[in-house]
Amino acid sequence: MKEDIRSLTRGELSERIRLFGEKSFRADQIFDWLHKKSAEDFDTMLNVPKALRKALSTELMIYPVSKELVQISKKDGTRKYLFRLYDDNLIESVFMRYEHGNSVCVSSQVGCRMGCRFCASTTEGLVRNLTAGELLGQVYEIERDTGERVGNIVIMGAGEPLDNYDNVVRFIRLLCDEKGRRLSERSITLSTCGLPEGILRLREEGLAITLALSLHAPNDEKRKRLMPIANRYPIAEVLSACKAYYDQTGRRLTFEYSLVRGFNDSMEDAAELSSLLKGLNCHVNLIPVNPVRENGFSPPGREEVLAFQNKLEKNHINVTIRRELGRDIDGACGQLRRRVLKESKA
Ligand code: SAH
């Protein structure tokens, strides 16, 4: 299999170009084509000599992330993309417009093996990891398609990013490369179901990205019923890794809490959550659970959500309710891919 040129760091690319017997400025030109101009083909790199383009294409490839389908929300303009990869796997990404700029939610894996019970991405397990180039491809294709610049990235689509650690960190470094898209580390959020070793490793990377933890329950007993990973790692261990991340990076932590009607949405749950997070520099993001047909979970009503928010606020916890963008377009993780896969099997 040819190597993925989009996944190479600038240093690695220079080294490859040197091995081709070329001057280092050629590496800069090619990096610029790949990461600033989003080239999809070596032949578009017109200032690169034809012979070098040919040599490159014998060993390396720009793996495609091709737009298969786009659903545009009539309510808020959110766009949900379905992309096809070189091996015909399908992945989803979402483009959202916020007051502070455009944001893209990328997938980090095809499928997922974490098994969270409310999530549509995990029902058929993990198919494979995405490469750094395929992660970047989602952003570059969306910028091309919308003609708009993307300033914020959330690694919150299908997959567990810390289960694809090396490719995800490579993706972040490439996104922030000063000769590429130049995103600021602070505009990137990585969301994890809570793998303590991964969190502690991430802490050492020296990246100023925001860490979001999918907490979803105020205690281990309830968390285990939603998230199999909670059987491996108790909340105390995960929170201690998050604290260590905060101590090193100074980045305020985000906790995601999906509200499930009658399960984790009571005032007692809110009180328990408040004491769990007391004293942490953090922010809680409440997400009324997005019903996925098979699992039978339903979200609480608006009033219950507001009451839950109030209770946390009274206990001095920063809290927001996630804007429900794109609910009319299979907005929840993995739902569009699942629908299309099912239809193609039918
Ligand atoms: N694996 C990572 C990132 C992908 S999931 C993680 O667990 O954080 C992104 C977020 O969406 C997580 O907080 C996840 O728990 C949540 N999520 C998935 N399906 C959902 C649903 N049906 N309703 C509400 N939130 C959901």
Description:
With 346 residues, this protein is of the alpha/beta class. It has two domains: 3-61, DNA polymerase, domain 1; 66-345, Aldolase class I (TIM Barrel, Alpha-Beta Barrel). It has eleven helices and 14 strands. It has helices spanning 10-19, 24-35, 50-59, 132-146, 165-176, 196-203, 220-226, 235-249, 267-277, 302-314, 335-345, and strands at 3-4, 60-61, 65-72, 79-85, 90-98, 101-105, 109-111, 126-129, 152-155, 188-192, 210-214, 253-259, 282-288, 318-321. It has a ten-stranded mixed sheet, sandwiched between helices. Strands 1-2 form a two-stranded parallel ribbon. The chain has a two-stranded antiparallel sheet with strand order 7-8. It starts with a strand and ends with a helix. Bound molecules: S-adenosyl-L-homocysteine.
Residues in β-strands, percent = 15-25%
Give the C-alpha Rg: 21 Å
CATH class term of the largest domain = Alpha Beta
User: First CA to last CA: what distance?
Assistant: 32 Å
State the major sheet. Answer: 10 strands, mixed
| Class by alpha and beta content | alpha/beta
CATH fold descriptor of the largest domain: TIM Barrel
Q: Quickly count the helices.
A: 11
CATH superfamily of the largest domain: Aldolase class I
Uncertain spans: none
Q: Which hetero compounds are present in the coordinates?
A: S-adenosyl-L-homocysteine
Mean pLDDT: 94
Which series of helices and strands comes N to C?
Answer: EHHHEEEEEEEHEHEHEHHEHEHEH
